[in-house]
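Collaborator request log, item 7. Partner lab (contact: R.S.) asked for a structural prediction of Glutamate dehydrogenase to inform their binding assays.
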Amino acid sequence: MSYTEEVYERVVAQNPGEPEFHQAVKEVLDSLKVVIDRNEEKYRSLSILERLVEPERIISFRVPWVDDNGTVQVNKGYRVQFNSAIGPYKGGLRFHPTVNQSILKFLGFEQVFKNSLTGLPIGGGKGGSNFNPKGKSDREVMAFCQSFMTELCKYIGADTDVPAGDIGVGGREIGYLFGQYKRVRDLYEGVLTGKGLTYGGSLIRTEATGYGVVYILNELMKDHNDSLNGKTVVVTGSGNVAIYAVQKATQLGAKVVAMCDSNGYIYDPNGINLDVVKDIKEVKRGRIKEYADRVEGATYTEGVGIWNIKCDVYLPCATQNELDVDGVKTLVANGCKYIVEGANMPTTREATECAMDNGILFLPGKAANAGGVATSALEMSQNSQRLSWTSEEVDAKLHQIMVDIYAKISDAAKRYDLTDNYVAGANIAGFEKVVDAMIAQGIV
Ligand code: NDP
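Returned to partner:
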C-alpha cells in the first residue's frame, strides 16, 4: 500500500463519523501521490503526512446565551487550529445549524493549502458554531456573539489566530465579535478580518472572494484563448461570494442568468439585476423567490436543479457538495465549458472527476476562492501598519494574487505531466510551500 493510502486509512480509522473531513483528505492525498512517490522515504521518515492531517489543536466549548423569551440556549463553539507552519492560523467562522467538527476540520484542512497558495504568511484554521442566525433578532445575535467570543478570545490574537467571516458570519457578527474581544482582552488589534471600514476593515474585503473567483476564471479563459465577453453564466447561492462574482462577471461582459438560495432558484434570461438581489439579500435578508415577483420576465423554481439552466460557465458559490454527478452530466450535455468553485468543496468528488473527464476546465475552491482570505491578509497588513489602502490599491493586489495563483497551479500541474488538472495543481503547489516550512521547523 502506498504511503498516501496508508495515511488515508489511518485518518478514516482514527476520525470516525467525519465524512467531510475524510473526503477533503482523500482528494488532497490522491493528488499528492505523484509528489510523495518521488521522495517517499524522506516524507515517511518525517511522518509529514501524519502531521499534515492532524490539526495542531482543536478548541471546543459551550456557548450559553439568553434568547428574547428569556430562555437560556446552549450552542457548541469550535476553533480548529490546523497548521501554523507559514503564519498565524487564519480562516473563517461559520454559524450554521450543520456545523460540526467534521465540517470544520475539512474546512480547516482545505484552508492550509488555500492560504499557502496566496503567497502570504498565513497558516490554516477554521471555526464556528451550530448557532443559526436566521430568524434571530439583532439582540439575540449580539448575545450569542458576545458569549462565543468570551471563550474564544483566550485562544486567538493578531499574531496567533485571526478568524474572519464565513456562512452566517458577515459584517454584523464580526462587529459584535470584535467589540467583545476588545472589551475582554483590552486590546485594539487586528484579531478579526472582515471588519467595518470605521474600525480597521479593508476596502474590497466584502467583494474580494467573488471578484477573485472571476479574476482567476479570466486567467483560465485567457490561457485557453477564450474570454468572458458574451458568455452565459450561472452562479449558485445569493450570499457574499455569489453576489460579487455576479458583479465582476457582469462587468467583464458576461450575462449571469441564474442564482439561488437553499429554497430554490431564479432564472432571468435578460441577465440578473444585481441591485434587486442586493436589496433582497443584503438589506431585507429575504428569500431569492422575491426576485421573480419584482423583475419582469424572471421565473422562480422551488427546490434544487439550477444546473439544468444552459450556460457556458457554472460558478457554484453556495455550500459544500451542492453539485453532484447528475448535475455535472446535465451541464456537460448543455455545453458548459468551465466550472469554477466559489464555495468550499461545492462539487462532490465523483462530480469533479466527471467534469474533468468530460473536458470541462475545472478550478477548485482552494485556488478559486482564495481571494477572500488573501484580502483578509491584506487587512492584517494594513492593521499592523496602522494604515488604510485605497480600493484601487487593494483591488490591484487582489488581482495580482489571483493571477499568481493561476500561474502557480497551472505550473505545478505541468511539472507533473498533469496539464489542465488544476485540482492536482492546487494541492501540489499548496503542499510544497507548507511542507518546506514544516521540515525546516523540525518535529513540532
Ligand atoms: P453566505 O452565507 O453569504 O451565502 C451562502 C449562500 O448559499 C446563501 O444564498 C444560501 O442560501 C446558499 N445556500 C446555502 N446552502 C445551500 C444549499 N444547500 N443549496 C443552495 N443554496 C444554498 O456565505 P458566503 O457567500 O460567504 O459563502 C459561500 C461559500 O463560499 C461557503 O462554502 C464558504 O465557505 C465559501 N467561502 C466564503 C468566503 C467569503 O469570503 N465569504 C471565502 C472563501 C470561501 P440561504 O440563505 O437559503 O441559506
